[in-house]
TrEMBL record:
<dbReference type="GO" id="GO:0043171">
    <property type="term" value="P:peptide catabolic process"/>
</dbReference>
<dbReference type="InterPro" id="IPR045357">
    <property type="entry name" value="Aminopeptidase_N-like_N"/>
</dbReference>
<feature type="binding site">
    <location>
        <position position="341"/>
    </location>
    <ligand>
        <name>Zn(2+)</name>
    </ligand>
</feature>
<dbReference type="GO" id="GO:0098552">
    <property type="term" value="C:side of membrane"/>
</dbReference>
<feature type="domain" description="Peptidase M1 membrane alanine aminopeptidase">
    <location>
        <begin position="286"/>
        <end position="404"/>
    </location>
</feature>
<feature type="signal peptide">
    <location>
        <begin position="1"/>
        <end position="17"/>
    </location>
</feature>
<feature type="active site" description="Proton acceptor">
    <location>
        <position position="319"/>
    </location>
</feature>
<dbReference type="InterPro" id="IPR050344">
    <property type="entry name" value="Peptidase_M1_aminopeptidases"/>
</dbReference>
<keyword id="KW-0378">Hydrolase</keyword>
<dbReference type="GO" id="GO:0005737">
    <property type="term" value="C:cytoplasm"/>
</dbReference>
<feature type="binding site">
    <location>
        <position position="318"/>
    </location>
    <ligand>
        <name>Zn(2+)</name>
    </ligand>
</feature>
<keyword id="KW-0645">Protease</keyword>
<dbReference type="GO" id="GO:0006508">
    <property type="term" value="P:proteolysis"/>
</dbReference>
<feature type="binding site">
    <location>
        <position position="322"/>
    </location>
    <ligand>
        <name>Zn(2+)</name>
    </ligand>
</feature>
<feature type="site" description="Transition state stabilizer">
    <location>
        <position position="403"/>
    </location>
</feature>
<dbReference type="InterPro" id="IPR034016">
    <property type="entry name" value="M1_APN-typ"/>
</dbReference>
<keyword id="KW-0732">Signal</keyword>
Length: 408
């Protein structure tokens, strides 16, 4: 159920000006404690990208279950400025807080309560925050742009959350093994389209703005736990390339449905909202919403040959496979990244054999296997399963070991 943000004046305010609680224990790991877990998110984002304003505000209500008695809730937050934070119990009564503070090194938002939260109890952590799309690393929730046929620069906002960048878009429990359901509301200009991981529940129109409401897409599996959402704001509903362009989408589109059908037969389910949307800069694998960089999805038959077609077909198969390996099935921790990327690399060749048999993709997998075996023969190669903790260490795991050294 979607929850509309309540005016700030009606709620008790917790201030970052509170003194730091010196009794709070120091954290010796980058992994979250296990005392509390989220069971649902209600996320609201208010953007003004249509005015070329890169700042945005938001609210997230996180339903939390206490697994072990504790007086501390720890989650992730990076780049967001916390405007208001309140904790309420199952009777909607406010819980008194000692303080909340940031551990900038570990990206922890630490909420300290005056009373012990007993095991088995549930609470709602209600946070107002501000942030910005003005980042150049193509990560988190960021701004991209393109120049249309009339020479006008158009802006869009997109997400890329893997591996540790969901926390930079809004406060959340940003670990691969912590999954739950969520609802999303996105406010934007009337000339923009908002997309999230599920069909829109409804759109409210105002004088110069609109709010799009999305709910968990569980039409194939009731109450299916999924990861934190991805979302996108753009000024066209598909590719920005005009229909008269020489660039074609048919290579992509003819691969999407067969890939989904093959994976559904293979694994028994696929998110019903899965679709393709186009972005100037990156491609990502959000549950039910797959976005692509234009250079990896548009094919010009006059200037680009078989190699480009192989890339387009392979990437579509890879990203659709992530609806299973990476979303439905995800590692508890990044040490097992090959469970995401290795199987996606394997199945991109498998599903593409059905959509484009003329490319003989399964035969082409031999070169991937040979490359993996050559790499594995090195005396200094790292193990497939390799423990890491910091965001930098996690990022360095996205190498050929994770992608190519698949045990299958």
């Amino acid at each position: 159920m979607l929850k509309i943000c309540v005016p700030l004046a009606l709620l008790a305010v917790a201030s970052l000006a509170w003194p730091v609680d010196q009794s709070v224990r120091a954290f010796d790991t980058y992994r979250l404690p296990n005392q509390t877990v989220p069971t649902h998110y209600d996320l609201y984002l208010d953007t003004n990208l249509h005015l070329a304003d890169l700042d945005y505000s938001g609210n997230v209500k996180i339903r939390i279950q206490v697994l072990e008695s504790t007086s501390q809730i720890v989650l992730h937050s990076k780049r967001s400025e916390i405007v208001r934070l309140e904790l309420r119990n199952s009777n909607q009564l406010a819980i008194s807080l000692k303080s909340f503070e940031m551990d900038a090194d570990k990206d922890f938002l630490i909420v300290n309560t005056k009373e012990t939260l007993p095991a088995g109890s549930t609470y709602v952590l209600d946070i107002d925050f501000t942030n910005s799309l003005d980042r150049t690393d193509a990560a988190g929730f960021y701004r991209s742009s393109y120049v249309n046929a009339e020479g006008v620069t158009k802006f869009l906002g997109v997400t890329q959350f893997e591996s540790t960048d969901a926390r930079s878009a809004f406060p959340c429990f940003d670990e691969p093994g912590i999954k739950t359901t969520y609802s999303v509301q996105i406010a934007c200009g009337l000339d923009y389209n908002a997309r999230s991981n599920a069909p829109a529940l409804g759109i409210q129109l105002f004088t110069s703005r609109q709010e799009a409401h999305y709910v968990p897409n569980d039409s194939t599996n009731a109450n299916l736990p999924v990861g934190v959402p991805g979302f996108r704001l753009h000024q066209r509903t598909a590719s920005r390339v005009p229909a008269s362009s020489d660039c074609r989408l048919d290579v992509c589109s003819t691969n999407c449905q067969p890939s989904a059908d093959v994976l559904r037969r293979r694994f028994g389910t696929i998110p019903a909202g899965a679709g393709i949307y186009f972005d100037q800069r990156c491609h990502g694998k959000n549950w039910g919403l797959v976005t692509y960089r234009e250079s990896t999805i548009l094919l010009d038959p006059e200037s680009q040959g078989e190699s480009q077609q192989l890339q387009v077909v392979g990437i579509v198969g890879h990203e659709y496979t992530h609806q299973f390996f990476g979303n439905l099935l995800a590692p508890q921790w990044w040490s097992y990244l090959w469970l995401n990327e290795g199987f996606a690399r394997l199945y991109q060749y498998y599903v593409s054999e059905f959509s484009h048999p003329e490319l003989k993709m399964r035969d082409r997998f031999a070169s991937v296997r040979e490359s993996a075996l050559n790499l594995d023969a090195s005396a200094t190669v790292r193990p497939m399963t390799y423990y890491v903790e910091t965001p930098g260490e996690i990022s360095r795991l996205f190498d050929n070991i994770a992608y190519a050294n698949n045990p299958a």
